[in-house]
């Protein structure tokens, strides 16, 4: 086998893997386009006044509502823009 054929035999799979890696990174960044930047806290600013609580790991709006004697609808009203599916531990939300 010639030297050129050997280089092509090694370079082709390497080029393919590089292309696939770049494609995966581009798709992942496109899917994350709607997320907040990594440096942001992602916190929803609770309106002034009232009682706020910090979300615990594993909390749902249903658990928080039950713990504080309110409803999920009321939590959503008090915290406009909150993502009920994307609750993160440490986020402060208004409960009253």
UniProtKB/TrEMBL annotation:
Record's signal peptide: none
Residue ranges of every copy of the LysM domain listed in the record: 51-95
Keywords for the protein's UniProt record, in alphabetical order: Membrane, Transmembrane, Transmembrane helix
InterPro entries: LysM, LysM_dom_sf
Ranges annotated as spanning the membrane: 6-27
SMART domains: LysM
Top-rank lineage group of the source organism: Bacteria
Name listed for the protein in its UniProt record: LysM domain
The organism of origin for this protein: Gaiella occulta
Lineage: Bacteria, Bacillati, Actinomycetota, Thermoleophilia, Gaiellales
């Amino acid at each position: 086998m010639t030297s050129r054929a050997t280089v092509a035999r090694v370079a082709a799979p390497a080029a393919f893997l590089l292309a696939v890696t770049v494609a995966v990174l581009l798709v992942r960044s496109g899917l994350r386009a709607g997320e907040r930047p990594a440096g942001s806290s992602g916190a929803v600013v609770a309106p002034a006044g009232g009682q706020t609580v910090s979300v615990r790991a594993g909390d749902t709006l249903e658990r928080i509502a039950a713990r504080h004697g309110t409803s999920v609808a009321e939590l959503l009203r008090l915290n406009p823009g909150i993502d009920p599916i994307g609750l993160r531990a440490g986020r402060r939300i208004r409960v009253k």
